[in-house]
Amino acid sequence: MWDAVAALTARAPSLRALCDHRLHLLAAWEAHRSGTGPDPASAAERVLASAIELTAPVVLTAARAAWDGRLVVMKGPEVALRYPARATRPYSDLDVLTPDAPATQRALLAAGFRELGDPALYSGIHHLRPLWLPGTPLTVELHSQPKWPEYLSPPSLAELLDAAVPGRTGVAGIEALRPEHHAIVLAAHSWAHAPLARAGHLVDVAAVLTEADADATAQLARRWGCGEMWGTTRGAIRALLEGGRSLALSTWARHLSASRERTVLAAHAEAWLAPFWAASPRRAPAAALAAMADDLRPSEQESWRAKLARSGMAIAHARRPQSEHDRRLEARA
Q: Which of 27, 276, 278, 305 is most open to solvent, judged by the fewest CB atoms within 10 Å of its CB?
């Protein structure tokens, strides 16, 4: 698997593309291992990743001391443990499932953690305001449920907690998701943010799958009502890392195979077409129409005039990388 990932990083046209796919640290590790030397431009990212690797157990230990209830880590350090070296998997926060997130939040605040961010941004979503332990580069996000695509229903918190296993972060009392659960949770989180947008997200799922039962995972995905999403994810991993074929990677997610950034056009196509690859035939049309409507309407506190101007720029930049378009929008703003 990691030889296939190395080939994937070697195809990337630039460091920016590697960063966009969350593969830059793996590329630097591979360059160091081969003796060619990593790109000096990634030095700051590599130093930060090493600091995070060292700090994660410190933050988790503080959280464990502050709260005696269950704490189940998703993503981040638990995925990094499956990478060739822990500091090759980038992350900046610790996602933690807990049966009583508000009470856990209060306990961590009483122990010296501080809340960050605008409270309005975290109202009614799957996790509370991020918590920061002063002197560390990490935040903690306490979840009442994992992030899930809007057109699919997440599994119950009770089921995830009941199947949790001892964590491997080295901190006593910190748990992790069962591998079959974790693989699907990682895939769902990726689809909820940006479906098949980053190769690194697929590498995460593939890394966890090495310790999961493939048939049991597929059966679980069907029981959770996300069999289509899982099937597309698994097909994309096969196409990307195992020499298979994927219709999605041959059409609206072609940037993955080339390790290049998505274009503006591809990013919009992704939002509109993804439900047909992730939801049931009954749900997909409505989900796709909702995604289109959300894309075409002005964002919150944006006028129609500003929206039309932004849409004009998107049409003009249709074949440019999404990051370049975003930078131009920010400069214009």
A: 305
User: What are the pLDDT digits (tens) for 111-147?
Assistant: 999 999 888 888 877 888 999 999 999 999 999 999 9
Q: Could you give the maximum distance between any two Cα atoms of the chain, in Å? A: 55
d(CA 76, CA 167): 12
Domains along the chain?
2-262 (3.30.460.40)
CB-neighbour burial class of residue 28 (10 A; exposed 0-12, middle 13-18, buried 19+):
buried
User: DSSP string of 78-100?
Assistant: HHHTTSSSGGGS--SEEEEE-TT
Q: How big is the chain, counted in residues? A: 333
Pick from 9, 3, 6, 1: nearest CA to 256: 9
User: Cα–Cα distance between 158 and 151 in angstroms, integer?
Assistant: 21
Beta-ladder partners of 263: 321
Residue 132 pairs in a beta bridge with: 114, 139
Question: Helices 227-241 and 2-11 meet at what angle, rounded to 10?
Answer: 80
Q: At what angle do helices 227-241 and 199-209 cross, to 10 degrees?
A: 100
State the DSSP code for 85. S
